[in-house]
Automatic annotation (TrEMBL):
Residues 1-28 are annotated as: Disordered. SUPFAM superfamilies: Pentapeptide repeat-like. It holds the Pfam family Pentapeptide. This is Pentapeptide repeat-containing protein. It comes from Streptomyces muensis. PANTHER family: BTB_POZ DOMAIN-CONTAINING PROTEIN KCTD9. Transmembrane segments: none annotated. Coiled coil: none annotated.
Length: 222
């Protein structure tokens, strides 16, 4: 029987044009930002809901409690963003590179991520409930208690990254590759792994959780 191959995710190919420095006084709701570089801007608590970022670079910006609900981030690079409680709920990220992020409690529930690379850094309590991820790669990063509840993941790869306490409750997976995850710890929703591919070693590690989910008691024979 022919071996079924898992389709790899399509990575973003971001080629930024020559950028102009951002000279505004902060974000504005429904703002339109095109070809700009935000360098070490303090965007704490600012309201950029519904804003559009096209061909932009955000480098070393503070995003604590920044309101970016319904924002559209397209063909852009975010390098070393930091902050707690950044609100990107129901936003769209397409052809985006997120590098060395240090975020906590980032809200991306209901968001759409397509051709996104998350490389390096650490994100605590990432909320991706009911989000749609397609062609997304998590690489060399640490995700602490990420919540994928009710989300749909298609062609998503976890490469040399750590997942701690992941919640997969109600998730739908298609062509999701977990084999190269450095650590795979699923707190809830292990029964939703249909559509994912894991390694033999990961299967052994998950065996106790799978047995508990199926109501199987594992005891040594007399």
């Amino acid at each position: 029987m022919a071996r079924r191959l898992t389709k790899g995710a399509r990575r973003p190919e971001v080629r930024l044009p020559s950028l102009e420095p951002f000279r505004g006084r902060g974000l504005e709701p429904d703002g339109d930002y095109d070809g700009l570089e935000f360098r070490e801007e303090d965007l704490t608590g600012q309201d950029g809901s519904g804003a559009r970022f096209m061909d932009c670079a955000l480098r070393g910006c503070a995003l604590d409690e920044a309101g970016l609900r319904h924002a559209r981030i397209l063909d852009s690079v975010l390098t070393a963003p930091r902050g707690v409680g950044t609100d990107l709920a129901e936003s769209t990220l397409r052809d985006v590179e997120l590098v060395d992020a240090r975020l906590g409690g980032a809200q991306l529930h209901g968001a759409v991520l397509e051709r996104v690379l998350v490389r390096g850094g650490k994100i605590d309590y990432l909320n991706l409930r009911k989000a749609r991820l397609r062609d997304v790669v998590f690489e060399n990063c640490v995700l602490v208690e990420p919540d994928f509840g009710g989300a749909r993941l298609e062609r998503v790869e976890f490469v040399d990254c750590v997942l701690k306490g992941a919640d997969l409750t109600g998730v739908t997976l298609a062509e999701v590759d977990l084999r190269r995850a450095a650590e795979l710890d699923i707190a809830r929703g292990v029964d939703r792994l249909s559509g994912a591919v894991i390694s033999p070693g990961q299967l052994l590690d998950l065996a106790p959780v799978l047995a508990a989910q199926l109501g199987i008691r594992v005891e040594a024979g007399e």
